[in-house]
Amino acid sequence: MFLAEEAAQTASRFQTFDVFVILFTIVLAIALLRLLAAPIKNKFAIGFAAVSLITFVFMDVLMVKHWLS
């Protein structure tokens, strides 16, 4: 019983949502690369994708720091 109580108190720092954040960051990076490689440049889309990618990379850094702390 003591071991079960101890295991219940130890919570995992990893959450299922973390996987979706990482996957979406990868999708944003691919989208930005495709926008930059396109023959006709859409400046608004490039800017929006860049800001979104910066935001999600920042979230990924904070998420990994939380895992390692």
Shape: elongated
Let me know the average pLDDT.
89
Helix content: over 70%
This entry's quaternary arrangement is single chain
The helix tally amounts to 3
How is the main sheet built?
none
Your description of this structure?
- By secondary structure, this protein is mainly alpha-helical.
- 81% of the residues lie in helices and 0% in strands.
- It is built from three helices and no strands.
- Helix 2 packs antiparallel against helix 3.
- The radius of gyration is 18 Å and the shape is elongated.
Quick take:
This protein is an all-alpha fold. The protein has 3 helices and no strands. The chain is elongated and about 60 Å long.
Topology:
Elements: H1 2-9, H2 16-37, H3 43-68
What attributes does this structure have?
69 residues, mainly alpha, 3 helices, 0% strand
